[in-house]
Write a structure and sequence with these properties.
alpha+beta, 155 residues, 45% strand, 7 strands, 3 helices, seven-stranded antiparallel β-sheet
Length: 155
């Protein structure tokens, strides 16, 4: 079984400024600081570029998973796209064979852009009921946190 969910949020900052956040480790630091259910994001390997592995740990009592590891598999500075796959734990423990998050910064004008967040997933047929674990809410909240940060820290 395959699925895909997307969310778009317009932000009144230049696309380049948004990409400075999304295309770097800065987004990880911001999420760790501002996302209320995240306990810690540990950089297991890498420096924020392709191949970087993060261990995301959630606060006790957070519904869902205690944590999981994800890997940056693509960072395209020209297209302003970052692709991250879960590589250990979390979704993979409940029948998912792929859980991918794609962040894309789309230029809308000289002082405006769209943060497009997409979740792509695949899971084994016998685990199809676990598709309900997938929610766009997490990436939508990350986009809102990012928007607030970007608007308060304009170039």
């Amino acid at each position: 079984m395959k699925g895909k969910l997307s969310h778009e949020l317009e932000v009144n900052v230049p696309a380049g400024q948004a990409w400075e956040l999304y295309g770097t480790i800065k987004l990880v630091k911001l999420v760790e600081k501002e996302y209320d259910t995240v306990e810690e994001i540990e950089v297991v390997e890498g420096d924020g570029g392709v191949g970087t592995i993060l261990h995301i740990k959630f606060k006790p009592g957070t519904p869902g998973f205690a944590g999981y590891k994800e890997k940056f598999i693509e960072i395209d500075n020209k297209k302003q796209v970052r692709v991250t796959d879960v590589v250990e734990g979390g979704y993979l423990d409940v029948g998912f064979t792929l859980f991918r998050v794609i962040f894309e910064i789309i230029e809308k004008g000289s002082d405006s852009c769209i943060i497009k967040s997409t979740i792509e997933y695949e899971l084994r047929e016998e685990a199809a009921a676990n598709a309900s674990f997938v929610s766009i809410d997490t990436v939508a909240k990350i986009a809102e946190i990012s928007k607030n940060y970007l608007l308060n820290n304009r170039d």
